[in-house]
Amino acid sequence: MIERIADELLSVAQTRIDTMGGCDLFTSFAQALPCRVLMELLGIRHVDAATLMRWSDASLELFWGRPTPQRQLELAERVGEFHQWLTEAVRGDTAPPGSFIASLTRHRLPDGKPLDVQTAVGACFFVLIAGQSTTGQLISTVLHRALAEPGLWPRVAREAGVAEAWVEEVLRREPPVTTWRRVTARPAEVSGVQLPAGAQLLLMLMGSGSDPEVFAHPERMCPRRPNIRHHLAFGTGRHRCPGASLARTEAAVALRAAARSLPGVRLTAGAEEPPMLGLLSFRAPLQVAVESPGDAPIPTASVGSRNT
Ligand code: HEM
């Protein structure tokens, strides 16, 4: 299913490259793929992917950004629309059998009672945001870094396992979820620092992948590292990301499909330093501008307002 959607999106991107000389693989592909995949998995109908992406991005900026009071009102309106729409989707009981929404509405608690609507909506709300924007951000970094690495693009298309290993190195070195919050349940000591119960922590997940005591030459992208998965890009413990396998699969499929479908593309001149999403916990290129050699460069403006 992921391959089918990837091929569909890439054939539109190819047409755009043929007719306009280039395209932005972030908006046309990286961002759109996880949204389309989740729509199928969750059984979401009667709303278009662009609306879902707008709702999800608004939620991210509202909860993890630093919006001005006026911007908070705009974002809250979109997030409210999203929540209301999900409530109707859960209440309406129209999701296809076997989908996430249908399973939640049919789920019975140990006492035999159904899950209340608020809880089911909360689960869908969080899974849609957690599974969509983060994976789009990972794919964006994966594509951008792969296109900037000399000789890698043709190898990804040809050699088995290269895409998976590249995705893992990007997760280690430049994960989309850079920090995560925790509250200490009881007094604890971390690296000699005493923490009382109830302390609010911001864990620097991204730094863990560049720890020289764990990874030799952490600054180098080495897809053959023996301990390639010893990073904290998906957190750890009982709240570790349940979508890790899905995200890894989507990113590897996306990279391989792009390298095979668009073998001749390269980053547009000037696209090596793209505008970045820079929220408290999320970081990724907001643009992956590509062109085919010989084509005119595409303009690099027209990106969202959250760049840093
Ligand atoms: C590259 C993509 C992704 C990254 C980097 C990522 C990262 C994370 C991180 C760091 C956490 C917090 C873990 C912790 O507290 O220890 C988390 C939690 C979570 N993620 Fe992901 N995630 C990704 C994709 C997904 C996908 C595809 C889904 C579902 C379809 C998903 C669903 C969730 C959920 C439901 C939680 C909350 C788990 C809990 O609190 O028990 N994530 N993710």
UniProtKB/TrEMBL annotation:
Mind telling me which InterPro entries this protein's record contains?
Cyt_P450 (IPR001128), Cyt_P450_B (IPR002397), Cyt_P450_CS (IPR017972), Cyt_P450_sf (IPR036396)
Where, if anywhere, are coiled coils annotated? none
Record Pfam families: p450
Q: Which GO terms describe its molecular function?
A: heme binding; iron ion binding; monooxygenase activity; oxidoreductase activity, acting on paired donors, with incorporation or reduction of molecular oxygen
The alphabetical list of record keywords is: Heme, Iron, Metal-binding, Monooxygenase, Oxidoreductase
Q: What residue stretch is flagged as signal peptide?
A: none
Family of this protein = Belongs to the cytochrome P450 family.
Q: Write the protein's name.
A: Cytochrome P450
